[in-house]
Each structure stands twice: as C-alpha cells, then as structure tokens.
Amino acid sequence: MLEAIERVIFSPEEIQKRVAELGRQIAQDYKNSAAKDPYKRPLLVVGILKGAMPFMADLIRHMDIPLEYDFIAVSSYRNGTVPGEVRILKDLDRAIGQRDILIVEDIVDTGHTLRSILRRLASRDPASLRVCTLLDKPQRREVEVPIDYVGFVLPENVFVVGYGLDYAELYRNLPFIGVLKPEYIRASSC
Ligand code: IMP
C-alpha cells in the first residue's frame, strides 16, 4: 500500500497527540457545562461510518467521562445522488430525545453530508448536539455547518487517505494521513 502514497501530511505520532488533546478537551467541556440532559444520562457519541471509526475508537479512550456510543451510516451524494441528499443506511439504535449527542466525523469537505445529518438528528430533539471532526477543509465549504471540535485543518485542497479515510474503500487502515500518487487515482474520481 505504501507505494501508492506520494507524501504523508499527518504522521501517526501527530495524529495520536492531537486526538489525545481533543479527547481530554471534550471530556472537560462535558464535565463543565456542555452536558444539558435533564436526566443526566451519559453522553452519546455518534460515529459516522465508515470513515470515523479509527478516529472515534482512539478519541473515546481519551475521554474520561461516562459515555455510550453508536453509529450511523449514510450514503454519500458522491455515489450518484444530488449534493445535499444523504440517505441513512444504518440509523441509531435508540431514540435521542433530551440526550447529549456528539457527532464524530472523519472530514468535513463541502459540508453537505454533515448538514444533512445535523438536520435529521436535530429534528429528534436532543438536549445538545455537538460536532467533532478529525479534518476540516474550510476552503471547499459550500454550506455553513457548525463544528465544535476540529483535529486538523487541511492547509491545502488535497484529497487525503488513511486513518479511516478511503479512496474507493482502500487505504482506511493506514496509520497516517497522506496523499495518493496521481497514478493511483482514476480519472473519473474526485
Ligand atoms: P462533504 O459532504 O462534501 O462534506 O463530504 C464529506 C464526506 O466526503 C466525508 O465524510 C468523506 O467520506 C468524503 N471526503 C471528503 N474529502 C475527502 C478526502 O480528502 N478523503 C477521503 N474522503 C473524503
């Protein structure tokens, strides 16, 4: 797999250091004032499959607070649908009314996916709804979305893989985040 990588943008060490910082900060915020559930139930961390899986697995182990987690899977508009239309393939197992929800996403690019997810979850009346993304590509944004926690802002407009992020379902298991060599990207993609 390594021969497909042109360069590494964030090393495993940089990622682990930043994820630990984020996890501690988020836990502190929920201990202080972010938790709004009138019944004091644990925070529900919601990972967006598949990309957020490695990030969320590391993040929650740095969050020293009671929490539960669940996942949702959505179909991306990249797979043939119109931007803004995101279909839920796997929904949350339980109702989230009056609960504190933290969405964990791999990357926010145009913002359409996150906006759609936020709208759907907000309509279920959670006590609070926050967003944590590992990566942010603000220069690509097409719709405004509120983001509470960002791991790294990508300094340039590049397509990245690794640490959960894929190209055609590959490279998710790389321990770093990097850029593919052009010859490994099919002309029809991106
Ligand atoms: P958005 O709806 O344009 O914000 O796109 C969000 C989704 O697009 C992410 O959850 C990723 O699955 C995918 N995506 C966007 N940029 C990248 C990238 O650089 N590498 C891998 N996947 C990406």
Structure description:
This protein has a single domain (13-155), classed as Rossmann fold (3-Layer(aba) Sandwich), CATH 3.40.50.2020. The protein is 22% helix and 29% strand. The chain contains three helices and nine strands, in the order βαβαβββαββββ. The strands form two sheets. Strands 4-3-2-5-6-7 form a six-stranded mixed sheet, with helices on both faces. A three-stranded antiparallel sheet has the order 1-9-8, covered by helices on one side. Inosinic acid binds next to β5 and α3. Residues 51, 76, 105-114, 159-160, 165 line the site of inosinic acid.
Helices and strands in order, then pairings?
Blueprint (H helix, E strand, L loop, with lengths): L4 E6 L1 H23 L8 E7 L3 H8 L6 E9 L11 E4 L9 E9 L3 H11 L5 E9 L12 E5 L6 E2 L15 E4 L10
Parallel strand pairs: 2-3, 2-5, 5-6, 6-7
Antiparallel strand pairs: 1-9, 3-4, 8-9
Helix pairs in contact: 1-2
Inosinic acid binds next to strand 5 and helix 3.
Give a quick set of tags describing it.
190 residues; alpha/beta; Rossmann fold; six-stranded mixed β-sheet; three-stranded antiparallel β-sheet; 9 strands; 22% helix; binds inosinic acid
The H-and-E topology, N to C, reads as EHEHEEEHEEEE
Strand percent estimate: 25-35%
Bound heterogens, unique: inosinic acid
Distance between the termini: 20 Å
Count of distinct structural domains: 1
Query: Measured on Cα atoms, how large is the radius of gyration?
Result: 17 Å
- Total number of strands: 9
Order of strands across the main sheet: 4-3-2-5-6-7
Poorly predicted runs: none
Shape: globular
Secondary-structure-based class equals: alpha/beta
Number of helices: 3
**Average pLDDT reading:** 93
CATH architecture grouping: 3-Layer(aba) Sandwich
